[in-house]
Design a protein that fits this description.
Order of helices and strands: EEEHEHHHEEEHHHEHHEEHEE
CATH architecture of the largest domain: 2-Layer Sandwich
CATH topology of the largest domain: Ribosomal Protein S5, domain 2
Largest sheet: 8 strands, mixed
CATH class of the largest domain: Alpha Beta
Mean pLDDT: 95
Strand content: 25-35%
Structural class: alpha+beta
Bound molecules: adenosine-5'-triphosphate
Number of domains: 2
């Protein structure tokens, strides 16, 4: 029997996040263009007497270790479908900022699902895994798939996208997180009384991704949640300005924030932006990462 399985799962940045009107069920229709970037959590599972979650990393104290953890929920969902107990110890080595708008919890959900499937020999099909991912959360299917993809619906209906090259990113990690539901609520509040169009992917943005053209992508990056994130966390404007001033091709809030993302022309430009952001004192940590990268991948076991 396999002693343990480890899965590596990337973070994401939204290169386009178009948010439609509030739906009666409380969600929003989205046109959500995801790019997986090389910042990773690693999820290791091993047999255990009952279900247990542990976490290590700079933000570990902010991660719930009970059944509310998305990794635990993933293990429980797979076990229930296959008529078995979720007797597993899930250990998360966390490098993705918590509540940072980079889908860290979703990454752990997808990682635990893939890891438990391998550990238990469940043999779930890709479609079944994607179905469980969609039940767990809007961003979880993309964490499994990785690369670049367009998400419709709540973001869970994925179409893979072609990309023509590697994009160089810098991420400024803010102090503290932002609650995704609170950012959507603020977005609704700021847009109250205005006509909100149905969300559509930008043809120019998809073309820039296909061409691997960073300046063209920079010109059309768009995040409808950015005004809401800035309203809740005005200091992020200073971080965006610091990265732009250091030569980033574009600066935007990543998803619901408060992580900010900077697109650079190449690796040396990314290093320059990273150094300037560190010197600016406007963020807690600075990371560089490339994308696209593959989704959840078994790396040991
Ligand atoms: P998204 O970009 O998908 O909106 P996020 O990156 O902003 O999400 P997460 O790091 O996924 O935010 O965490 C959001 C909340 O989810 C946390 O505050 C925490 O309470 C809860 N959570 C549940 N499971 C996890 C997990 N494995 N890792 C981190 N947070 C988790």
């Amino acid at each position: 029997m396999t002693a343990s399985v480890t899965v590596r799962v990337p973070a994401k940045v939204n290169v386009q996040l178009a948010v439609g009107p509030l739906r009666p069920d409380g969600f929003h229709d989205l046109a959500n263009v995801f790019l997986a970037v090389g910042l990773y959590d690693e999820v290791t599972v091993r047999p255990h007497d009952g279900l247990k979650v542990t976490c290590e990393g700079p933000d570990a104290d902010k991660v719930p270790l009970d059944a509310g953890n998305l990794a635990a929920r993933a293990a429980l969902a797979l076990a229930a479908r296959h008529g078995r107990e979720a007797n597993v110890h899930i250990h998360i080595a966390k490098d993705i900022p918590v509540a940072g708008g980079m889908a860290g919890g979703s990454a752990d959900g997808a990682g635990a699902l893939l890891a438990c499937d391998a550990l238990w020999g469940t043999g779930a099909s890709r479609d079944e895994l994607l179905e469980i991912c969609a039940e767990l959360g809007s961003d979880v299917p993309f964490s499994l798939v990785g690369g670049a993809a367009l998400g419709r619906g709540r973001g869970e209906l994925l179409t893979p996208l072609e990309t023509g090259g590697t994009f160089h990113w810098v991420f400024a990690v803010a102090d503290g997180g932002l609650s995704t539901p609170a950012v959507y609520a603020e977005c609704d509040r700021l847009r109250a009384g205005t006509a909100v169009p149905d969300p559509e992917p930008s043809a120019d943005l998809l073309a820039a991704l296909r061409a691997g053209d960073a300046p063209a992508l920079a010109a059309v990056l768009a995040n409808d949640l950015q005004p809401a994130a800035l309203s809740l966390r005005p200091a992020l404007a200073g971080t965006l300005a610091a990265g732009s001033g250091a030569g980033a091709l574009a600066a935007l809030v990543s998803g619901s924030g408060p992580t900010t993302a900077f697109l650079a022309a190449d690796e040396s430009a990314a290093r320059k932006v990273a150094d300037a952001l560190t010197a600016s004192g406007t963020c807690r940590a600075v990371r560089t990462a490339r994308g696209p990268v593959p989704g959840a991948t078994v790396v040991a076991g």
